[in-house]
Fold this protein.
Amino acid sequence: MSANIPHEVVKTYNLGRARIEFWDNGITYLAFVPETEVDIELARAVFTIMKQNQQQGERPLILIDMGKYTTLSKEARELSYSPEGLGLTRISAIVVHSLAQRLMINLMADLKASHSIKVKAFRTPGDAREWLLRQKAKRRNK
């Protein structure tokens, strides 16, 4: 599959420091504004929108673009590890822009692996999207 495969944005939410798009290929795209700290309020707003748009019993594929120099507060990290956070996705592809972000995502991947959640870091959104679509095809073939 090519990363150049077009997709259509079905629905968009702009939260100021973040944007959420729901794509017709089943991917939920979450982009943070560069130099943002994702605090508990922003994390809860994102979770609320994702839950409202989640199909019954379905956990979407998520592509997250962290934005350059974006960080997560301790409370936002804890929310992502909570049962609520773990229930929102099964597979996440995260575009990172620094070594610090990559290290944080690798740690999250290790923690979430014990809950059967795949998390992988990428340098470009195209590579991340391509990987998510391959994972979707694998799930369909099982």
